[in-house]
Amino acid sequence: MISRRQFTQTLLAFGLSSLMPRHLLASAENAITVPPSVMLHSRHWRILPDLLVRLRDLGYSGVTYRDWEQAIIGHTTLPEQPVILSVDDVTAVQGSPAFAYFERMKDNFLEAGFGAVFGVITRPDLPQDTERWGRLSAWAGEGIELATHTAHHSNLDNPSWLVEDYESEIVESAAVIAERTGQPVRTLITPYGSGYDIEHRSINPQVLSACRQANLRFLVGISTGQRHVHQDNEAGDVLYVGRANPGDEYTVNDALYYVQYW
Ligand SMILES: [Zn+2]
Asked: What does CATH list as the number for 34-260?
């Protein structure tokens, strides 16, 4: 099946732009294709080594949102078949049991030569493990991107929230990660896919405002969403991008299916 983007590009290639609705014409000029993106959690540690081998055999290279940003602004080019793998729910809170699994997954990415993204929940209300923050900082130095996954894993569409709630969940969580790791944060992975209205293709205005304040570039959904963004890249504004969620207990083949048919 031909995608809307291919359709618009075909019309443009044949000089048929007069047949196109104006909003499509405007967006076609600014269209960017989102690399295939898949969400993972700590429970996927079992399938990750095999998934990485299979992806590599198929010619894919793991990149981060930061890598992609550099390509969008023309500083670099992405490999021919980029894929963005992101792992949610990392935290440096004292005693959180899953940390060892996240670390194992980080090692798998590095051994495979894959860039990858981890979504960090900062939980400023709980005692922090300084040693774990040191490890996350080392990950950042090894090419892993650390995204904020908010302070408390909150629903960003909470109607009772005030501006300061958005600041503490988004702006402050990004600032904590940057301060603790020395890596600027450019990506917000939203809990529960909140913060974006898929039907109307619009970012929650409060979320957008907080992302701008925190100098974030990417708002990443938790489930399948937009695969092509049509925005003015030069403005450097916040881009909403989707991810594939092959399911809670998915297999390597499930994940590969979503990557290949992105
Ligand atoms: Zn999460």
From this structure: 3.20.20.370
